[in-house]
Amino acid sequence: MNWLWKPKTPTPQKWMISIFLLSLIAALTPMLWRSFVPAAHWQLQSLYGALLLTAAGGLWLRSLYRRKLWRPAGPWTDYGPIKCSLMTALCACFFVFVLWLDLVAALPMAYTRVMGGEVTFTGIAEKKRGSGRHACRQQLKLPDVHYILFEFCINEDSFDDLPDGPLPARISARQSYFGSSIHTIELAVARSQ
User: How far apart are CA 114 and CA 91, in angstroms?
Assistant: First the structure.
């Protein structure tokens, strides 16, 4: 395991590295599978949880450093006090974001897939062109969904056949306390002859 840590690395530092890497890997899942929509109340609770876990991790790291069980690597030892403080704040903000992604989508998505119940409900959908480099070009947008990572992709032929504006839709999803994993969106569109 020399590629993860150097020989004679203290066990608590190995635990911290492992937790950080697992958190980063878990944070990739909502970016790859974008059909999960967390509940509005859970988005705010996840932010508070991420702040709390980051603060606890920072206190644990400080405790390990004081007991000489954690040794900073790389440029941390060469930084001055101002640059070190700025880097600490930047790393803390990044870790809050990573933990928020884990708490708001990655873990609830897994829970919803296993423990959630099937639901069908009606709503409104609109066609939308994706603009991101990695986003799908043709999407359906649900105006009631306020979550930046949600995408529901459709093929180009279906997209071109849809009229502009809001369309009534029947949405099938798996739902839990944490949110919904949307499977299908069926549009009620009049067929042109």
Answer: 33
Are the CB atoms for 70 and 61 separated by under 8 Å? yes
> Contact, 165 vs 186, CB < 8 A?
no
Residue 104 vs residues 24, 25, 52, 126: alpha-carbon distances, Å = 14, 15, 14, 25
Using one digit for the tens of pLDDT, what is the confidence trace for 160-183?
888 888 889 899 999 999 999 999
Sign of CA dihedral 17, 23, 25, 28: negative
Angle at 89 between CA 71 and CA 59, to 5 degrees: 55
pLDDT digits (tens, 9 = 90+) for 111-167: 999 999 999 999 888 888 877 666 678 888 888 888 888 888 888 787 888 888 888
If we measure between CA atoms, which residue out of 174, 40, 25 comes closest to residue 101?
25
Per the listing, tokens 């093929």 go with 155
Indicate the average pLDDT of the chain. Answer: 85
Average pLDDT (2-17) is 80
Segment holding 58, helix H or strand E = helix 40-66
Residue 45 has pLDDT above 50, yes or no: yes
The region that residue 75 occupies, defined by phi over 0 for left and psi between -120 and 50 for alpha, beta otherwise, is alpha
Residue closest to 171 by CA, chosen among 183, 156, 159: 183
What's the CA gap between 181 and 118, in Å, rounded?
A: 10
Q: Rounded to an integer, what distance in angstroms lies between the CA atom of residue 127 and that of residue 148?
A: 16
